Amino acid sequence: MPTPMLLLAAVVAGWLVQLWLTYRQSMSFNDDVRRLRGAGTVSVGSGGRRYRGGRAFAALAFDEHGVVTDAIQLKGFTTFARSRRFTEVLGLKASQLRGEREVPGLSTKQREAVRQAAELLRQGQPALH
């Protein structure tokens, strides 16, 4: 087989592996988010930039008073990232997370992700303004 064909085959194989790993990561995160539903109303947010330091994803479960009862974040490198417990936001109110005040222990991307999740909760739950 000529060298250009081998190169093309390797690129296509790599792309297919990447698609498969991305699918598995997505399904794993969705399963973990589904498990959060038992802890309350779930809202997911993202923060950061795709090509500048990566993105952060956070899924927060809120009770009827807008307090975070459970949370996970997608943490790791590329398609090997998996969800992990996100204890830094437990017990905080959605109104605190929507505000501009910093939350100790959160990176800028994580802060953007929890802010977006709290804002999306407010848009979907008018009683929590």
From TrEMBL:
Superkingdom of origin organism: Bacteria
One Pfam family recorded for the sequence:
GutM
Q: Which InterPro entries match?
A: Glucitol_operon_activator (IPR009693)
Full protein name: Transcriptional regulator GutM
Q: What is the lineage of its organism?
A: Bacteria, Bacillati, Actinomycetota, Actinomycetes, Propionibacteriales
